Amino acid sequence: MNPMFEESTRLDGKIWVIRVVEDVLRAGPVAAVDSFHAFGGSSLQAMRVCVRVEKETGVKVAPEFLLDSDSIGAFADTVVALVAAG
Amino acid sequence: MNDPSLIHGAVARQAAATPDAIAVVTRHERVSYAELDAAADACAAELQYLGAGPGDLLPVLLPRSAQLVAVLLGVLKSGAGYAALDHRWPPERIRSVLETLKPPLFITRETVPGDLVPSWAPPAEGPRWTARRCPRPAPPELTGDAPAAVFFTSGTSGVPKAVVSPHRATTRLAPDATAWTGPGRTMVQAAPVSWDAFSLETWGPLITGGRCAMADGDFLLPAELRRLISARGADAVFLTTSLFNLLVDEDLDCFRGLRTVLTGGERMSLPHVRRCLTAHPRLALTNCYGPVESCVFVSTQPVGAAECATPGGVPLGTAVSATGVHILSGDRPAPPGTVGEICVSGQGLALEYLGDPRLTAEKFPTVRVGGADTRVYRTGDRGLLDQNGVLHFRGRGDRQVKIAGHRVEPQEIETVCRRIPGVRECAVAALPDENGGGARLALFYTVEPVESIEPAGAPGRRDLTPAALRRALTEVLPHYLVPHFLSRQPAFPLTPNGKVDQAALSALLTTPPVPANRSL
Question: How is residue B294 annotated by DSSP?
Answer without folding.
Answer: B
